Amino acid sequence: MELITNMAFCYFNGELVDEAEASISIHNLGVHRGFGIFDFFKARNGKPTFFEDYLDRFDNSQQFLHLSRHISKEEVQSAVGALLEKNGFANSSLKLLLLGDGVDADDAISPLFFIINAPFEEALGIPETNLILEDYVRENPMIKSINYFTSYQVHQRKKKYSAMDVLYHKNGIVSEASRSNVFIVKDGVLLTPEKNILHGITRKHILKIAEGVIETHIQDVTVDDVLSADEVFISGTIKEVMPVLKIEDHIVGNGRPGSETIRLHNLFKEHVRNYHK
Questions:
Q1: Are 190 and 105 members of one domain?
Q2: Within this chain, do residues 68 and 181 fall inside the same structural domain, yes or no?
Q3: Exposed, middle or buried by CB within 10 Å (0-12, 13-18, 19+), for 276?
Q4: CA 239-216-171 angle, 5° bins
Q5: Is the pLDDT at 2 greater than 70, yes or no?
Q6: Number of domains in the chain
Q7: Which residues are catalytic?
Q8: What is the mean pLDDT of the segment spanning 60-70?
């Protein structure tokens, strides 16, 4: 998927405003302390894909912030609908951002809620990627936090290996990539980690379409499992089903997208088309 940067309207604390007019105070607590959450999804032909799933996850994530006001699902739905109508993009991405607003001395921290909407074009073919490894487990992996410090800290290593993402592991057990879930295929069986992960919406739907298609297990996956796998792919809103060809210097399988990965990629595309019928 290619994101296109055009000037557009955003939703900012209850209003639709031009992006150029939206601003955050330099004293904002969320910025100073990395105290915030976000979510990200696509809309096709003006209609959000898997919207209820993303609403549920965003709602669950904000429970951890304990802000003075809860942003209701109804407010999010209404804001997204108004923003999509205002911008009129055929296909677009939407990023929900919720920051703690205020300063350290405040007794109650209020929410600063905004939505960014940008057009996108679907990628042709099946995009491929590489990964690097990092010994790390995210704090509060069940929520979609704005804290990506570790991922960006290793940006030079990602550049060295032409890697899009970093694969986290601890004590030999793989959890997730910084911006995606991970799957492997070994001897015709699909495996994906179960612990210390964000429960990705794309992951959820891949597991659904895999039923009756390929034997699937949700379990501990080791680094050795990944390095000895026949196929590895990552999943996410942008990536969808994306084959991994190399992990640092290690070539995955035969160095090309595997047959099961290609099949799941095509089934996921069909699943999305059927969702919007």
A1: no
A2: no
A3: exposed
A4: 75
A5: no
A6: 2
A7: 144
A8: 94
